[in-house]
Write a sequence for this structure.
C-alpha cells in the first residue's frame, strides 16, 4: 500500500518551521504496514495544492495531507479540496456543536471565523479533532485503472494531527486496505553510544532472521533499538521477535532500561508507586529539568515531593546546608558537595530517595581540571548515599538532558536492588 | 527565481531521520532572495529520482538535490544523474587528489570504495567538499522555452551540505541569477489564541500592501505572526514592513513579547541582567519547568538563584511556610496560597523577583469548582505581590507549557514597568 504525504505551509518552505510531521506520520505508517513513497512540501497556494494532488493520485493509493485547514485567511486547503473533488462547502451541524463545546469548555464565545470551520466539503467523511477546531476530511476517488485512492486532510498543528492519525486515520486505513502482519519491539538503552553498541551486538545482529530488521534510533543520552518483523503468521512472528530479544538481553543487560514507548520517568514512577516510596531532587546543573521530567507524568504527586534547585553556592549553603568549607575546598562540582546536597534534601523533604546533580553544563565555566561537561550525580537511598562522576560533551542542552537521563537510570537500578 | 529542493534517502521516508536539510537550505535561499517552491523527499530509487528531476525541471529554474552521493551501494544518485543528463562517469584527477589528502590528514588509506568517489559525470562542473569526500555536481540544462535550469547535487550529511551551500552553491547562484530583495520580520505574541488574534487584526491585515504577506504560526501558548515582503528596493521594503509592524503594535500591544527568533526566557534573562536583578521560582503545577526554561539559557546563573518545587501541601508548609490555615481554607490552588509561596520564596532566595505557580495540570484532580486547567500565577516584585487566575485546557503537557509562558510574560511586563 503506497502512501504519499503532502505537507502544506509557507512557514515550512521558508525554513522557519522544520517539517517534523512527515517523519512522524511515516514512522506510524511504517509501524502499521504501509510504505511511504514520497513527501511533498508546498506552500498555501491553490495551484500548487491542485498540482500536488494530481501528481500524488497517479502514484499512490493513499494521500495524506497536513496543514492549511485553520481558521485564518492563509488557510486555503479546504476550498482547494472542494475544487479538486468537485464539491462545495456545506454547514456541518456536528462539527459546529464540537466547536461550540470546545470554546465553552475554555470559557470563550465562538467567533464568526470559528463558525466557518464548521463549513466542510459535502462529499467527504469528516474526522473529529479532539484537540482543536479543524476537522479532518476523508475523501475517496475512483482510480482510472482500478480501485480507489483515499485522500485524508488533517491539521498541520503537530499534536492535533497526531491525535487524529492515531485514533482516526490509521485505524480506518487498516480497515480499508489489507496489510501484512508487522510486529515491532523496541529495546531502550541508556549509557552507551551508538557505535559502541553496534560493535557489542554485531554477532547477534548478523544472526537475525531475514524477516526481522534492526534500526538504531539514537537520541541525546539514549539509543533505542527497534526490531521490525514482517510475516503472515502473527503467533510465529511474535515468538521469533521475542526470542531475538531474549538473546540480546544478556549481551547488553546493564544498559537496557525498558521497552517500547516507556520513558525512564514513567518507569521510576511505577517502581516508586509499587514500593510506596517517595522521591525529591536537589538540582544544580539540571536546573529543575529532572523535576520537570518526573512531574510530566500524570499522578506523580503520589510519589514526588518536590525539588530544591540551588543555582548558586549561596543557595546551596542556605537552602541545602552544604557547608561553606566543602564548597571552598572541593568546589560546587564535586562528590562531596553533591552528596551533601542529597543527604540534606532527604531530611528536608522527608523523602525515601533523592537525586542530586552538580555539573558544568556550559558553554562557559569550564577549567582544565573540570572541563565543560563534568558532572556529579548522587543518589540518596534510605541509609545510603553514593555519587558518580561523568564527563559529557560541550552542548549545554545535551549535557542537561544526558545528566537527567543518567540520574534517572541510576535511581532505577537502585530501586530494583 | 524559483527553486525546488529534492532530498534523497530511505532513512527520511521511514521517519528515522527528520529532514532538517530542506528547512535549512530554504532559509538560506530566502535570505539570498530566492523563492523555494517545493521540497520533495524520495527514496534511493533510480525511477523515483528520474521522475522527480523531470517534474522539478518543468517548474523551477534551480533544482537543489541532497543525498545519495556517498560511497556505499545504496547511493545511486550519481549514476542516475548521468542517465538524466545523458553523460557518463569519468575519473577526475582533482577530486582524487582531494580524497587522498582528506584520508592522509586522518591517517587512513584510500579504499577502492573511496577511489570511486573520484568518478564523476563528464558534463558537469564539480564543487569541492571541504568536510567530506563526495564532491558537489553543478549541471545546466537548456529549457524547452527559454533560459536554462541549474541542477546542483550535494551530500546529504548536514554539515557537508551546509559548508558547500554557503561557500559554493549560493555565491554561484547569485552570480547566475538576479534576485529580488526579500525581508522577513516575525512578531511574537502570547496570551491570545490564533482566531481571536485574527479577528482583532483583521482590518490591519486587509490593509497590508500586496507585496507583504502575513502568516500565523501557532504553538502551544503562543502565536507568531510573520510578515514577508518582496521588492526590488531594499530600503523602501524595510521601511514598508517596519511601518506595517508599527501599525500593528498598538492593536495588540498587551500580547506582543518579542520579535523574530527571541524566546521569553531569553528576554527575561536580558531584562534581569540589564537591571542587575535576580529571580527565583516557587513552583507547584509547573514542577520545575519554569526553572528549566530559565536555566536553558547560557549564563543564567548570573541572575537565576534557584527554585523550590513544592509538589505537596506538606512541602508547601515545610519549605515555603504556607500556613496550614490558608491551605485548609482556600486550598493549594488559590490566590492566597500562591501569593504566600511567592513572598516566602522571596525571603528564602533573597531574590528581587519571584514567580510562583499552583494549578491543576490534570488529567485528574479537577472539581466542579476548580476544573482541570485552573491555575494561579503570582509575581512578587520587590515590595509588591500580585496574582492572576487562568483557566487553561485539559492537556497536562500543554497546561504546564502555557502556565510557564504566561508566568514569564507576566514577569516580563513587570520588569518593563
Amino acid at each position: 500500500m503506497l502512501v504519499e504525504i503532502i505537507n502544506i505551509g509557507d512557514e515550512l518552505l521558508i525554513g522557519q518551521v522544520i517539517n517534523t510531521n512527515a517523519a512522524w506520520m511515516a514512522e506510524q505508517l511504517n509501524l502499521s504496514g504501509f510504505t511511504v513513497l514520497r513527501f511533498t512540501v508546498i506552500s498555501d497556494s491553490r495551484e500548487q495544492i491542485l498540482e500536488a494532488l494530481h501528481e500524488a493520485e497517479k502514484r499512490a493509493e493513499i494521500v495524506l495531507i497536513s496543514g492549511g485547514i485553520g481558521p485564518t485567511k492563509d488557510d486555503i486547503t479546504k476550498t482547494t479540496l472542494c475544487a479538486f473533488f468537485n464539491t462545495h462547502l456545506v454547514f456541518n451541524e456536528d462539527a459546529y456543536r464540537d466547536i461550540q463545546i470546545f470554546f465553552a469548555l475554555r470559557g470563550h464565545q465562538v467567533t464568526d471565523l470559528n463558525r466557518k470551520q464548521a463549513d466542510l466539503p459535502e462529499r467527504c467523511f469528516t474526522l473529529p479533532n479532539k484537540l482543536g477546531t479543524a476537522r479532518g476530511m476523508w475523501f475517496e476517488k475512483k482510480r482510472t485503472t482500478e480501485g480507489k485512492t483515499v485522500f485524508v486532510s488533517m491539521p498541520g498543528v503537530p499534536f492535533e494531527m497526531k491525535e487524529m492519525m492515531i485514533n482516526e486515520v490509521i485505524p480506518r486505513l487498516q480497515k480499508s486496505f489489507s496489510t501484512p502482519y508487522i510486529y515491532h519491539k523496541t529495546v531502550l538503552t541508556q549509557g552507551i553510544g551508538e557505535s559502541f553498541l553496534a560493535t557489542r551486538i554485531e554477532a547477534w545482529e548478523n544472526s537475525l532472521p531475514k524477516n526481522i530488521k534492526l534500526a538504531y534510533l539514537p537520541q541525546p543520552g539514549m539509543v533505542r533499538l527497534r526490531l521490525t518483523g514482517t510475516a503472515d503468521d502473527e503467533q510465529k512472528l511474535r515468538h521469533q521477535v521475542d526470542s531475538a530479544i531474549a538473546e540480546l538481553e544478556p549481551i547488553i543487560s546493564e544498559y537496557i532500561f525498558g521497552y517500547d514507548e516507556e520513558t525512564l520517568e514513567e518507569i521510576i514512577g511505577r517502581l516508586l508507586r509499587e514500593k510506596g516510596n517517595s522521591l525529591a531532587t536537589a538540582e544544580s546543573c539540571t536546573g529543575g529539568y529532572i523535576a520537570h521530567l518526573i512531574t510530566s507524568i500524570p499522578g506523580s504527586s503520589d510519589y514526588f515531593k518536590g525539588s530544591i534547585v540551588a543555582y548558586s553556592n549561596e543557595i546551596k549553603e542556605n537552602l541545602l546546608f552544604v557547608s561553606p568549607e566543602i564548597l571552598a575546598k572541593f568546589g560546587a562540582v564535586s562528590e562531596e558537595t553533591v552528596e551533601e546536597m542529597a543527604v540534606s534534601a532527604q531530611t528536608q523533604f522527608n523523602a525515601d530517595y533523592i537525586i542530586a546533580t552538580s555539573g558544568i553544563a556550559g558553554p562557559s565555566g569550564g577549567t582544565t581540571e573540570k572541563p565543560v561537561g563534568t558532572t556529579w550525580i548522587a543518589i540518596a537511598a534510605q541509609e545510603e548515599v553514593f555519587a558518580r562522576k561523568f564527563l559529557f560533551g560541550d552542548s549545554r542542552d545535551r549535557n542537561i538532558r544526558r545528566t537527567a537521563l543518567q540520574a534517572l537510570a541510576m535511581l532505577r537500578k537502585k530501586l530494583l536492588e
Q: What stands out?
A: The first strand of chain B starts at residue 2 and ends at 8. Chain B touches chain A through 90 residues (CB under 8 Å).
